[in-house]
Amino acid sequence: MRILLAEDDPLLGDGLQAGLRQFGFQVDWVRDGDAAEYELRSQVYTAAVLDLGLPRKDGLDVLASIRRAEVSCPVLILTARDAIPAKIRGLDQGADDYVVKPVDLNELAARLRALIRRAHGQTTENLEAQDILLDPGARTVRQAGAEVEVSTREFDLLQALMLNPDRVLSREQIEHHLYSWGQEVDSNAIEVHIHNLRKKLGAASILTVRGVGYMLPKTSRSS
């Protein structure tokens, strides 16, 4: 899952980026409000972590601006401003959650997973489709009760498809979920991951929609 991190403190930003990557997030990091607004308006992110005290443009102004532009990306505000009025203003401007610094990385990751679940209409922590159970927190996959060993990229791809059951995702959309800035993508990388997942989960688990992309049906279909 690809998220945007907007934090101007270099030490904190570096620590958050590295820490969130350990939890399986692909993180694009910007350091000022103008850059944050530009990215959120021009790219599709699964979620965003937005500091309020950003240079060039305050985080609350960024939030208000993207909500006026109908950008629906879930936003978690991360700030040292712990006064109740600041929290209320942030939530009223369109924030989905609010965490005060210093923040525990485990809590931050859990809150992001919860935001993403809700944004995709998921009410439980685990994702289920067909006979597949995916646990985003533990990063495990089970099929018919048996654990299935998958690589990091395979897990991320499967998660993207299971967050959008019965919906076709294009190759470009999948790449955007799996890779952050500066990461090279082999021309056939997505096809290889899809092939590997089908070998492990069954040929009919992921469907190819020719000329469009790939889809994971909510319920099993005959091959």
Considering DSSP H and I runs of 4 or more, what fraction of the residues is helical? 40-55%
User: Low-confidence spans: pLDDT under 50, at least 5 residues?
Assistant: none
Kindly provide the radius of gyration, computed on alpha-carbon positions and rounded to a whole number of angstroms. Answer: 18 Å
Main sheet: strand order: 2-1-3-4-5
β-strand number: 11
Q: Give a quick account of the main beta sheet: strands, pairing sense, barrel closure.
A: 5 strands, parallel
Terminal CA distance reads: 29 Å
**What is the overall silhouette?**
elongated
Roughly what fraction of the amino acids lie in strands? 15-25%
Overall mean pLDDT stands at: 88
Q: What is the chain-wise order of helices and strands?
A: EHEHEHEHEHEEEEHHHEE
Query: What structural class do you assign from the helix and strand content?
Result: alpha/beta
Number of discrete helical segments: 8
Describe this structure in words.
- There is one protein chain.
- The chain is of the alpha/beta class and 223 residues long.
- The model has no long low-confidence stretch (mean pLDDT 88).
- The strands form 3 sheets. Strands 2-1-3-4-5 form a 5-stranded parallel β-sheet, with helices on both faces. Strands 6-7-8-9 form a 4-stranded antiparallel β-sheet, covered by helices on one side. Strands 10-11 form a two-stranded antiparallel sheet.
- It has helices at residues 10-22, 33-42, 59-68, 84-92, 105-119, 152-163, 171-178, 189-201; strands at residues 2-6, 26-30, 47-51, 75-79, 97-100, 127-129, 132-135, 140-143, 146-148, 207-209, 213-215.
- Strand 7 (132-135) and strand 8 form a beta hairpin.
- The chain is built from 8 helices and 11 strands.
- Helix 2 packs parallel to helix 3 and helix 6 packs across helix 8 (189-201).
- It is elongated and about 50 Å long.
